[in-house]
Specification:
Elements: H1 2-17, H2 21-30, H3 38-50, H4 56-70, H5 73-81, H6 84-90, H7 97-111, H8 115-123, H9 126-135, H10 140-154, H11 158-166, H12 169-178, H13 183-210, H14 216-222, H15 226-232, H16 235-241, H17 248-270, H18 273-295, H19 302-316
Helix pairs in contact: 3-4, 4-7, 7-10, 9-10, 10-13, 12-13, 13-14, 13-17, 16-17, 17-19, 18-19
GO molecular function: adenyl-nucleotide exchange factor activity
Subcellular location: Endoplasmic reticulum lumen
GO cellular component, one term: endoplasmic reticulum lumen
Length: 318
């Protein structure tokens, strides 16, 4: 009998906590609480960012909050529909490094795997503005975010890749990685190049598998003459020199890019005594680390895989 009383008391408590939605709405209305849609929030944030009466702190806070919303593909497309994307792109022209940085932060999230937004961004001049920031003196934190936005804009978008090459994008990246203290950017650049090279290869392979003779995307990729440009502009040597970086993660990225460039850069790599010495020294280092992994019971672990990459490169370059 006692337990049924307890049940009833519990049910009453649950009912009290979970009131009907109409009741909640009525209460909210009485409190004058307005529940905004994502679109309304984004319009408000863009207005805050774009207002001449907003302080620098308010503008940065608006961009910071906006970045959270544009991760969602639909929201990023809505940002486009009311002209908010162009406002953020224009933010890249700001004389304030922090505005450039946070505008790029928003754009990187909005471009990510969102073809509609990528196309509009190219038409809105985003690519030129991003390259200008990377080519001029700016704080490293701003360049990091701008490079992230550039990567998001170029990935899976061959037309943007074509424009990037035409606008001298590889020269801009080359200058960037050769500056002192930009190792963290160099690894990201090398990873981007690896992604672009392999993306084009996958497009070719996919066309073979599906037996489509000239899918539109493949035709676009064939207009992107990336490998010859990389070779002409000294990326064979730049990538090889980056193997001297001390972090395992950086070396892993450089090794995979060396592998992707191997056919294009074979003669460079074959005649580079410094590269042979670096690979031999890394081979010795990773043999020890891979053996340690095995002793710790980790079969075919991280260092074993790195050693495999080094061994196959040495094999190819014999």
């Amino acid at each position: 009998m006692e337990s049924s009383k307890e049940d009833k008391a519990r049910q009453a408590e649950v009912k009290r906590l979970f009131r009907p939605i109409e009741e909640l709405k009525r209460d909210f209305a009485e409190l004058n609480v307005v529940i905004e849609t994502d679109m309304q929030i984004m319009v408000r944030l863009i207005n805050k960012f774009n207002s001449s009466s907003s302080s620098l702190e308010e503008k940065i806070a608006a961009l910071f909050d906006l970045e959270y919303y544009v991760h969602q593909m639909d929201n990023a497309q809505d940002l486009l529909s009311f002209g908010g994307l162009q406002v953020v792109i224009n933010g890249l022209n700001s004389t304030e490094p922090l505005v450039k940085e946070y505008a790029a932060f928003v754009l990187g999230a909005a471009f990510s795997s969102n073809p509609k937004v990528q196309v509009e961004a190219i038409e809105g001049g985003a690519l030129q503005k991003l390259l200008v920031i990377l080519a001029t003196e700016q704080p490293l934190t701003a360049k990091k975010k701008v490079l992230f936005a550039l990567c998001s804009l170029l990935r899976h978008f061959p037309y943007a890749q074509q424009q990037f090459l035409k606008l001298g994008g590889l020269q801009v990246l080359r200058s960037l990685v050769q500056e002192k203290g930009t190792e963290v950017l160099a690894v990201r650049v090398v990873t981007l190049l690896y992604d672009l090279v392999t993306e084009k290869m996958f497009a070719e392979e996919e066309a073979k598998l599906t037996q489509e003779t000239s899918p539109e995307k493949l035709q676009q990729y064939r207009q992107v003459h990336l490998l010859p440009s990389l070779r002409e502009q000294g990326w064979c040597e730049i990538t090889a020199h980056l193997l001297a970086l001390p972090e395992h993660d950086a070396r892993e990225k450089v090794l995979q890019t060396l592998g992707a460039l191997l056919v294009t850069c074979w003669d460079h790599y074959h005649q580079d005594p410094k590269l042979s010495r670096t690979l031999a020294s890394l081979q010795a280092e990773y043999q020890v680390l891979a053996a340690q992994e095995l002793q710790d019971g980790e079969d075919e672990g991280y260092f074993w895989e790195l050693l495999g990459s080094i061994n196959s490169l040495l094999q190819e370059l014999r």
